[in-house]
């Protein structure tokens, strides 16, 4: 074939002066002559001798530049001669034969009689020699790499040298080497100090045998390592679980995992870390989780009961890798929180059973729930890092016991009364910051209530009383609480409450205008201080209407305001709610007079005893009812407050704590009190909650949801309609039977109809 030409010839420098050149004019170099007399004797034999005798660490170069160039030049000339004297193929073959002969004749015998750590040391030394030999052989025959190897698509000289080492040495000893390395690693796990550098050198050898990939490392070393690690930690975990408490076991487990990660960083390939840690976690955590969590005397329930936060945090850190590992932990946490909450409920139940009369407030109980919520919210957010599973466990637990009502009053009533206690004057003595904190915590607790609409009804009634009786401690706090409820439930939930506050704000401006009008009307006569608060019916709770006969002093005031309001708002109708009014009545007993702070109904009753000159008239119950025009049940409450309460300004015959139709009344002749301003409370005319009204509102909400859904879907099966209605109703959870009754009502009113072709299916009627 024609002679091969290389584009790289001109890149080579001329030979040193006095030395033989490499031009064709110097003659043809025979294969055996060039190999035996030049390359083998002057380079290869010398290189092998140096490697066999041991390298001199102070010797930086095995060959001088002149020696190297001489060998390179010989190879170059033999590769660039014209055919048939071009020896590139033969030199490539002899390069491989030289390395193979050295490995099989020198290296392999030296390794066969070595074991354990001595095998590792010998192998790393021989591998180091091979790297040196491979490097120099590649340098001597560099021209083959530059042209012949590329032209014929052959492995490079360096890759060929690695391949020979892998085939002749590595494949022979890899199993023994891997076992020796694993033995050293297990010794280190047991506390021994090992030569980490030796293991690291062996790991690099396994990596190099992959020829650019980690296949050899993974197959020959990593897989046996993982198997041995599984066996090792199966034995260790069995010993730990028998002799240690759960916290002590987890401390050892955490230390073992950290040691394995550090071990990977010290001398293993980084790709091994995830696999190695996964094997260790499976053996010491996953397979032992149930035993650890339920271990008597030190399991998770004991840690939660004793508030062992550090140990709880460690449990979460170790088991947080997979959600399925956290599920049994979160389940136990939910059961524990539920148990603690039920204990609070049980303590309240015991108090209710032992109490003579149950009240609609129990601040001690609500504070217990708030403290419990604070404690476990902190636990979930810190020790359990706010994990979603534990957030759900907290929510499920609180929803279970917060909605467990005992006694006459529901928990929603107690929460609302707790807020009322904080927000009204004369209640809790708290700073602004404390009030805000308690309101926020109570709203968090409120979010777990299923019947939020019932809380809203009770809270709205109590808000109305605070506002109308001037008992609200701070308008800012009232608005703050409403804003918090609005954030949780939306503007629809708080719209009426906001309207109540707006009514009072607008009423202040109207009151100033009326005062001027009132002063002009009563000028020159005995004036009674009089003010009226106009309320929008839709915003405020429905109060019982009470018809009564006003005394002349009040009748005149009533008429003045009615005429004034009719002139200003001719299209609006006023409905007077006497049961919500407040009056200050001055009463004189001898030389001492008192300001009696009473309701309008009480004031009307007191003024009835004002006639008759020096001697107060005596009324039977029936006579008083006829004179005042107040219904019997309401009059009983009024007279009970005046004659049976702490301040008995009315004397009753016969004396008792109940009001009967046969009783008679007169003004107390010898009333005395240390205070000049006396507040005489009266039992409320309405309950703090109107269950009937709540049920009516729920009926409307259920029917509206049904109509909205059916209008959009046109046709729906019964079960799907019920499910979607339940999903839409966020303020309460009705019984599916109630929803079914409302669907029947809508069918009767022709909003829906049954599908005649498909059973249990409804159609919307436009």
End-to-end separation: 96 Å
State the secondary-structure class.
mainly alpha
- What is Rg? 49 Å
What ranges have pLDDT less than 50 throughout 5 or more consecutive residues? 1-25
Portion in beta strands: 5-15%
By oligomeric state, this entry counts as single chain
**Inertia-based shape:** elongated
- Number of helical elements: 28
What is the overall pLDDT average?
86
Main beta sheet strand tally, sense and closure: 3 strands, mixed
- Largest sheet strand order: 1-2-6
Range of helix content: 55-70%
Number of strands: 9
Give short descriptive properties of this protein.
elongated, 63% helix, mainly alpha, 28 helices, 3-stranded mixed sheet
SSE blueprint:
Blueprint: H1 31-53, H2 65-80, H3 88-112, H4 116-140, H5 142-151, H6 157-189, H7 196-208, H8 215-243, H9 246-267, H10 272-284, H11 289-294, H12 300-305, H13 309-319, H14 323-354, H15 363-382, H16 388-402, H17 411-423, H18 432-446, H19 452-468, H20 475-489, H21 491-521, H22 552-568, E1 582-589, E2 592-599, H23 600-608, E3 619-620, H24 621-628, H25 632-643, E4 650-653, E5 664-667, E6 677-679, H26 691-713, E7 715-717, H27 718-728, H28 736-748, E8 752-754, E9 761-764
Parallel strand pairs: 2-6
Antiparallel strand pairs: 1-2, 3-5, 4-5, 7-9, 8-9
Helix pairs in contact: 1-2, 1-3, 1-4, 3-4, 3-6, 4-6, 4-7, 6-7, 6-8, 7-8, 8-10, 9-10, 9-13, 14-15, 14-16, 15-16, 15-18, 17-18, 17-19, 18-20, 19-21, 20-21, 21-22, 26-27, 26-28
